[in-house]
Amino acid sequence: MSDTLLVMKFGGTNMQDSGAIRHSASLAGRSLVTGVRVVVVVSAMAGVTNGLLALADAAESGDIAAANDEIAALRTRHFTAAQELGAAPDSATVRDIREMHETLRQAVYGVYLLRELTPRSRDLIVAFGERLSAPLMALALEAQQHRAHALTGGEAGILTDHHFGNAKPLATTYERVRDRLSGLLAAGVTPVVSGFMGETERGAITTLGRGGTDFSATIIGKALGADEVWAWKDVDGVMSADPRVVKDARNITTLSYGEVMELAYFGAKVLHPLAVTPLQESGIPLRVKSAADPDFPGTLVQAQAHDEAGHPVKAVTAIRNVSIINISGAGVLGIPEVIASVFDAIARENITLLMVSQSSSMSNVSLAVQSGDAERTLSALRAGVSRELKVDRQSDVAVLAIVGSGMRGQRGVSARLFTALASQDINILMISQGSSELNISVAIEGLQVDEATRAVHAAFGLGQPVEEIK
Ligand SMILES: Nc1ncnc2c1ncn2[C@@H]1O[C@H](COP(=O)(O)OP(=O)(O)O)[C@@H](O)[C@H]1O
Ligand SMILES: N[C@@H](CC(=O)OP(=O)(O)O)C(=O)O
């Protein structure tokens, strides 16, 4: 057996049905047959997380029939996949899947009876997607003659805080994961861990935020001191823009942890924004790889940035469904306490600020937040800042960002961005540049975000192949 250890993450698309699961198992198998040890981390089958969220909402609103229909559809989907992967009707896997569905049904009925869906019960319900897919991957690996064992996030040692829906790992997680998984690996068994989920010290199930399976994989990678973490995707790697929006988006060969965090933070759905954080200290590389083309190198994410000649910007990305909250009035004028009260109110509500800007006359502060957080932001501000200030909201906004370490100290980058937007008649509502100079972001009308993305991608020549320099 080689000493190499890889953590491999398979997302929803790569788990969407028995065929995809079998293919994903074969990708892990390519390494396993060479003696490499692998920990597999899986997401829910594509669409299952959204289905679970929808049925939980239906139960809360009293529509138990709709919730039960969705549960039945999910049940059929998981049983069909298990059967197609070779599970006998009386096998332990089928029994486990049946029991999980029964518990899910009971949890959903509880929500219906109470007409209350707390963040805690939502996490319990939504984590069933990943809990149900891990045994399917274990089946597929076993069918390909690899010993495998399915574990929930908690069983694998992932302990988190109590931020249901957006939990973070506790420092004790790392040692615990090592304890839980080392024995299996030493015995030649491939652990298959349900991603996206963990549990609190008291055993309540938590989730790590949408797309959280990437984060689970890197937490496990750090805990085990893995050689690399591989995130298998339905795209070639991290691309210069969302390939669904920009047809000539190209694969980015290397990115630094910082660059990938900026990209994920500014909406590139390809990785969870915190996914690389566990890797930063240890310098473990993350590879984003194409499940359809496993020999293609994909994107290597590591500590150092590699800048590309003539390409100060590596990617353009966007966050949709944003609202701008404006705080204005003479009272804002140059009084630090006012600004402090604004940020206090936001911090108390744990709201993520996407952009902040203050007008030069200092009589106005604008905050960009996800539209889902806008009402909470408005109430927090109305309660927390002086009544003399006017607080209002502009909806249907998007934040577009350009990212790349090569723009540090480079002149003319913002000018190029603004010219590209102006050429399409796109009005800029807010501007901000991170002090790290890894990104420049602008708020624009939501309806214009796709054409803006394409214009900016073209203006920075991101569709053209480049030679890489160190
Ligand atoms: N810059 C980008 N690079 C690659 N993919 C992107 C980017 N921006 C958005 N995406 C989208 O992210 C998707 C992959 O993320 P996701 O579906 O969450 O992965 P998975 O579930 O396979 O882990 C792609 O299908 C692509 O449409
Ligand atoms: N299933 C979860 C977690 C996840 O990471 O999914 P995916 O890898 O399919 O993006 C979600 O949809 O958010």
TrEMBL record:
Pathway: Amino-acid biosynthesis; L-lysine biosynthesis via DAP pathway; (S)-tetrahydrodipicolinate from L-aspartate: step 1/4; Amino-acid biosynthesis; L-methionine biosynthesis via de novo pathway; L-homoserine from L-aspartate: step 1/3; Amino-acid biosynthesis; L-threonine biosynthesis; L-threonine from L-aspartate: step 1/5
Top EC category: transferase
Binding residues for substrate: T49, E130
Catalyses which reaction(s): L-aspartate + ATP = 4-phospho-L-aspartate + ADP
Annotated GO CC locations: cytosol
Keywords of this entry: Amino-acid biosynthesis, ATP-binding, Kinase, Lysine biosynthesis, Nucleotide-binding, Transferase
EC number: 2.7.2.4
One BP term from GO: threonine biosynthetic process
The keyword Transferase is annotated on this UniProt entry: yes
Domain ACT as annotated: residue spans: 327-396, 402-470
Pfam families: AA_kinase, ACT_9
Residues annotated for ATP binding in this entry: K9, F10, G11, G12, R244, K269, V270
SUPFAM superfamilies with a match to the protein in the record: ACT-like, Carbamate kinase-like
Top-level lineage group: Bacteria
Annotated family: Belongs to the aspartokinase family.
Name of this chain's protein: Aspartokinase
